[in-house]
Each structure stands twice: as structure tokens, then as C-alpha cells.
Design a protein that fits this description.
By secondary structure, the protein is mainly α. Helix content is 57%, strand content 11%. A two-stranded parallel ribbon has the order 1-2. The radius of gyration is 16 Å and the shape is rod-shaped.
Length: 54
């Protein structure tokens, strides 16, 4: 399975999840990723809504 972490802050949550997986001897660096697309999408939505209000 591939684990995708979307919860903020991604840069802190991914290492925590990695440490937990290492403790259970199930860690595979190719199977855990941090997803930052949500932050970009929120920023784009915020800008688009601000432009409509002008």
C-alpha cells in the first residue's frame, strides 16, 4: 500500500508517520508521500474568490 499524507503540516507529519512505521518494521521510503496539492488548491480558490469580489 502507498500512504499519502495530506494533513497539515505535511513537513512534520510525514516524518512522524515514517518513525511510527520504522518502529513496526514496515517502513518503505517509496511507499509514503506528502501531498501538498491541497494547499495550492486552497490558495488558488482564495485568489479566484478575491478577484470575483473586485
Amino acid at each position: 500500500a502507498i500512504i499519502a499524507i495530506i494533513t497539515n503540516p505535511v513537513n512534520s507529519t510525514v516524518p512522524i508517520a515514517s518513525a511510527i512505521m520504522k518502529a513496526y518494521n514496515v517502513y518503505d521510503e517509496k511507499k509514503i508521500i506528502g501531498v501538498t496539492t491541497l494547499d495550492g488548491l486552497r490558495a488558488a480558490t482564495f485568489v479566484a474568490e478575491a478577484k470575483v469580489c473586485l
